[in-house]
Amino acid sequence: MSTWQVLITSIPHRHEKLLELLACLDEQAQAGFGALLYRDDLEVPYGDKTQALLEAATADYVSCADDDDLLAPGAVGKILAALENLPQYVGFRVRWTRNGVLQAPVIHSLACGGWHDRPERLERDITQFNPIRRDLALLGRWEGGYEAERRWAAQVRESRRVGDEEFVDEELYYYRECMQDTFKTDRKPLGSMPELPSYPWLRQIGPYA
């Protein structure tokens, strides 16, 4: 069983970006790491897919990765090293770009005490991108589409059960925002699901598994 699993939701419209993410993870994959993937053709809301992944996960720790984002080089090893101390949560810094242009610094840490957009940086405490003990992640429920991650984070925060953190003071996640390809982009089903390479650390669930 993996120590940590990354949960990925994807749609065929982002296939090339998904391939890039999977290649990034494959370069870093090692013992203790795994990933779960749920692909659909716009049939299922983002939050419901993530909830299904969370319930199907078998690792002690889980986090999410958007299919158009990347983990920084060496991030998997650094996170697994942090998990050796058995924290409830792993915090880190995030590199945020918009259409390829670097944006304000972003920090994900329980010390932030919530989600705050400061003039000098963005601060987030509990987010889906950070490894968290799976039993604590299940204290919130993923449902619906837009801002499902905020609703889940608020429920986990309100439980007051997450307070122990191992913080890695480096940019470990690359949040790559593209204004022409967002959650709100108007799309129609493609009617087919592209083939994916097979990886020993990756398992698929859902109707196209």
Q: Would you write up a description of this structure?
A:
The chain has a single domain, classed as Spore Coat Polysaccharide Biosynthesis Protein SpsA, Chain A (Alpha-Beta Complex), CATH 3.90.550. Helix content is 23%, strand content 29%. The chain contains five helices and twelve strands. The strands form two sheets. Strands 4, 5, 6, 7, 8, 9 and 11 form a seven-stranded mixed β-sheet that branches. It has a five-stranded mixed β-sheet with strand order 10-3-1-2-12. A hairpin with a 2-residue loop joins strand 5 and strand 6. The model has no long low-confidence stretch (mean pLDDT 96).
Structure, briefly:
The protein is α/β, with parallel strands linked by helices and 209 residues long. The protein has helices spanning 15-28, 46-56, 75-83, 134-137, 148-158; strands spanning 4-10, 33-39, 61-66, 70-71, 89-98, 101-102, 106-108, 116-117, 122-124, 132-133, 165-177, 202-205.
